[in-house]
Amino acid sequence: MAQSGRRLPDWLKVKAPGSANYLELKRLIGGLQLHTVCESAQCPNIGECWNSRTATFMILGDVCTRSCGFCAVKTGKPLFLDEGEPERVAEAISQLDLRHAVITSVNRDELPDGGARIFARTIEAVRQRCPRTTVEVLIPDFRGDWEALGVVMAAGPHILNHNIETAPRLYPQMRPQAKYHRSLELLERARSLGQMPTKSGMMLGAGEREQEIAQTITDLAGVGCRILTLGQYLSPSQAHVPVDRFVHPDEFARWRGFALDLGLVHVESGPLVRSSYHAELQAGAFQGAEEGAGAKVASLSSQLQAAR
Q1: What is the CATH number of the domain that holds 227?
Q2: How confident is the model over 139-158, as a mean pLDDT?
């Protein structure tokens, strides 16, 4: 990734991919004619994740109708809708024997439902083919079409993720076709529509101010978001929004504590953290934290009953 001539600090350096598992997964993805956000978004963790035989599947093709200033995914006019994609995603998940699958997509604003039907079909195909696999979806905002959101929610994903990405002041540069409060409303509506936890993510280092980070995390907590990822913004090219600063791991740790104090149940915060980085571990940690919180409430209730 180009960082405007900046030298990456040691905590952002990763090994180049090329392990046997990496090459095998690359052949599998290519053979099934699928796309991954790992490749399309130039994720720095691709070597580690693919070596562990896990990937984030990107459905609805590889051409996005939006032009976000932070994203490496191709922008343009998609030529067709691949109706066979859901079954091929399920086949890949089956071959990889994934216990937790993450499915995201490009934006398809030209479709009447924004691609919600294909999301639902993919969730259903995975459930049928891999009934023990939990499914996390990272969805677009569907331009505020809440019926489309309902279609995805009705399919029953285990975790519903929608990234806020950055502070509202930076939306014109980072997410020009999105709306900050629309994303918050989506998370709030999703929380009210289903029992599954909602999740969101934010990039740091794109020019946001400290008080803006605090307010954004507070806003996410306010709409019932339970899982949060915080990671370093890395510019894909000189044509994208430049990196403003490299955030030290100590600051990421501080923001993690801030978010937990606001009531979020699980927070992944660090320079290399991405939405789906260690997603299976995030889901497990969330479940453990929820169970721990429930046990504490039950214990406190018993103590109160005994004291009466």
Answers
A1: 3.20.20.70
A2: 97
CB contact set of 265 (below 8 Å; sequence gap of 6+)? 197, 226, 227, 286, 289, 290, 293
307 falls within a domain: no
Give the domain extent around 202: 13-299
Closest CA to 243 of 179, 129, 166, 301: 166
User: Does 273 fall in a domain?
Assistant: yes
Cβ(283)–Cβ(134) under 8 Å?
Answer: yes
Within a domain: 306 = no
For residue 242, give the DSSP letter. Answer: P
Q: How many domains does the chain have?
A: 1
Residue 123 near residue 145 (C-beta atoms within 8 A): no
Is 90:132 a contact under the CB 8 Å cutoff? no
Measured at the alpha carbon of residue 144, what is the angle toward residues 139 and 148, in degrees to the nearest 5? Answer: 60
DSSP 12: G
204 in Cβ contact with 247 (< 8 Å): yes
Tens digit of each residue's pLDDT (9 = 90 or more) over 104-115: 999 999 999 999
Q: Which residues contact 104 (CB under 8 A, 6 or more apart)?
A: 37, 56, 57, 58, 59, 137, 138, 139, 161, 275, 276
> Residue 234: what residue type?
L
Considering the entire predicted model, what is its pTM? Answer: 0.87
* Residue 6 resides in a domain: no
Give CA 144 to chain center in angstroms.
18
